[in-house]
Amino acid sequence: MKNLQILNSLAVFGLVFFLYSCGSSGRSGATGWSFNSPENGGFEKTPYLEQETGPGLVLIEGGTFTMGRVEDDVNFSWDAQPTRVTVSSFYIDETEVTNQDWREYLYWLKRIYGDSYPEVYRNALPDTLVWREKMEYNEPYVELYLRHPAYDDYPVVGVNWLQASDFCEWRTDRVNELILIREGLLVHNPSSQVDEEHFTTDSYFGGQYEGEKANDGITDLNPLSSGYRNIELEDGILLPRYRLPTEAEWEYAALGLIGNSYDELITDRKTYPWNGHYVRNDKGPGDKYFGKINANFVRGRGDMMGVAKALNDNADITAPVYSYPPNDYGLYNMAGNVSEWVMDVYRPLSPDDKSEFRAFRGNKFQTKVLDSEGFLAPKYDYVIYDLDGIQSYLETYKKLAQSRLRDSDLNLLDNVNSFLEEAKEYVNENNEEEAMYKVQEGIDAIKDSESTFAPDLLDGISEYVLAQPGELRKRDVSVAENIDRRNYRKSDNIDYLDGDFESSIRYTDPSYENKQDTRMYDWGVTTLVNDKARVYKGGSWRDRAYWTTPGSRRFLDERQRTATIGFRCAMHRVGSPVGIDWE
Q1: Inter-residue contact 370 to 384 (CB < 8 Å)
Q2: 389: left (phi over 0), alpha (psi -120 to 50) or beta
Q3: What is the DSSP letter of 245?
Q4: Residue-wise pLDDT tens digits, 377-393
Q5: Residue 292 neighbours by CB under 8 Å, 6+ apart
Q6: Alpha helices (H) in 449-545, listed in sequence order
Q7: Positive or negative, the Cα torsion across 383, 388, 391, 393?
Q8: Does residue 301 surpass a pLDDT of 70?
Q9: N or C: which end of the chain has fewer CB within 10 A?
Q10: Which of 457, 438, 437, 459 is nearest to 449 (CA)?
Q11: CB atoms near residue 431 (< 10 Å)
Q12: Alpha carbon distance 173, 163 (integer Å)
């Protein structure tokens, strides 16, 4: 799409031809004033036809479906009760994110932050040690799976939920940056992209990224302006954010019921992402996949790939992302190969609690930080760390490595902890910048030491990077600013109806509201469910066929990684759920 050229033409001639199925109009239906006229103040009505499909994405037309388990609940977990919900149209990746995609991401991070903030790069490294098992020889995968070109098109593994979410943000910015370059607004100059001086969609919209411009911008019809402006959200040129799909979206896309419906009637129920109740293709001898295994999973005990000369799924571990037939939406490996992270926080009773429209648990509402004059605060030019997380990590490390630590190592840990305590004091004084510089001093102390444990400490601390240079400042919304709001009041709504004080057995006694024992989920004692437990969907190369059904659901802490979990990205669909019918 070349929407920008359309915008420039309209700006030059002061004329708009905006097509709808009902006709065209150059005047306001509310006031009668002409649009796109400097003489009338310059209010613009953008000629928008259709959302551009981002790289790698497939449009999933939304609708209603029965979400949840449709086969026997052999674990008796009762956490996927069938519930009817509606999913809006959205986009999702055709395949899982690959090793090559991730290495491109790593290369970019190293190029931008490698000299000043190497911890940002370390924070994105997959854990290749997830391949190790105590009673298996998997060392070749530790060394080769991520880096060797033979595995370029295999799904990336060893990434946790936080890393997957960060990748989605990075992908949004790179795609939108390319659109601006394509439309002739920016010049691509990698040598100028260092630390905070790189493109992000938020900083561009917030007026905090200039980059190297190819021209002055597009004509601004406001008679009080300087004559040109940057692209704005209202122009519809840049794409919405890449993100992880919600659990409902992923399950809906995996089922692919669009191939089993006639008008409003769903003619056949599905157990797997393909038709029928068998794991082999049973469409008949005329189908090229007839008799083949439909996905990459474990057929039976000790049978990861089948018999030589007749391998049943042609893969001992993962397989290339375009392996096996796609489902009716054209999506590959929605069953088997790797399980996939989704956005949702896990709760056993989510099917009972979730909304019937765009079901999701995990909302933490945030807003951009403003300065005293109401303008956007300057973007970060330093790294933001999780201080409590780093301290907890250092305490645990010290406890577990106590017998191997020398006096100099213990002194180093104490020194780093003193920097963290000073950083907390600065945070209490609302001086975040000085606090983060104190953390950097602690990191520098580790780098300058001769401790053999320094690499371990640097890698551990890197996992607690919350924000990196170039990002806009954000904060959680407060109850105070939402006094008159009815739809929500507080920022964190993860435990709403399931884990908050109101849903606990002490809900009638206000004296218990802030006490630990009012929690519904006593993490580490009676359960592993908490607000960091994230849902992952589908089966993997190491699972039995039972887990390949879209309704199955499991959970894992958002910081944990395995050799069986990968992910794919999604994107919101703006406007019509099916596109504009020009006929």
Answers
A1: no
A2: alpha
A3: P
A4: 999 999 999 999 999 99
A5: 280, 281, 324
A6: 454-462
A7: negative
A8: yes
A9: C
A10: 457
A11: 14
A12: 16
